[in-house]
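Fold description:
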Amino acid sequence: MNQRIDLNELQQPGLMPVDHPVVRSGRIGVLLMNLGTPEGTSYWPMRRYLKEFLSDRRVIETPRLLWWPLLNLIILTTRPGRKGKDYASIWNNERDEGPLKTITRAQAEDVTAHFKAIAGDRVVVDWAMRYGKPEVRARIQALLDQGCDRILLVPLYPQYSAATSATACDQAFRALMDMRWQPTVRVSPPYHDDAVYIDALVSSMKESLAKLTFEPEVILVSFHGVPKEYLLKGDPYHCHCVKTWRLMREAFGWPKERFRMSFQSRFGPDEWLQPYTDETVKTLAEGGIKRMAIVAPGFSADCLETLEELDVENREIFLHNGGEEFAYLPCLNDSPDGMRVIRHIVEKELQGWL
């Protein structure tokens, strides 16, 4: 039998030196990690967020000598105002936060309740953002303070990329480097081809489509783009996206010409993964497609790139170029299908600890 020493029991009178610090242990932590969101939509909160994000060497691999002047003298002068207006259009004014933060918190609360029912107080669930707040370092420390000597890191990215999954883990590892007593850590793997994930996507899509007043001629599956150079350097992201799209299409039962795939959110002059979402939407409309829907399975929660870029910008592109009916199908978020996926991932990766 695997028996573990409980330091909480050892810290009783007579069992430890009187000056021994209080140490809590024996619990398991789960940290859900997502990309991030600014703390506000005005210039300075947007600038701080964009500077942290665009200074990440995992995100922008351009040599620093070229990138730093461009970032600090041009991008951080002009982009915060423009992106702030975009964020303001989707902002959760009731909570004064971006929707990504609202949804990720709700996801963590659902997982907390789930494990409370099956494991009591032994599992502690928290959440953090790679950029902005709550910070990864602070939430790992909070888990340690609650006695979590084992922590499962869960990057909420179905498809692995160095610019998403890896940089989230980098941030956690930086925090561990400064710790005297590091917790035992696991990282959940990408789940781009997980059967539960694919089933949840298809189930959610069918539920959303049933609410529409029209039947789409084409469904476009849009993933966040990355520079093509990252693929050529060995990043598996493109392959993961293609497999997710193929499994979705097979489960959905639609032919390729009605179930398309594209990449959105390109930035800068370099070539990114193609086909591009905005160009694909325009081409479909100009080619006579009158009714279409877009879904973004690479996002675990709706955010600026889905609510504003897809549902607003690409809707306008489609309607302006001859399209008539357009629908954005929401992400899994904290829906029953979405939570089925996250609970499944956490349960699977905690095997042997629980």
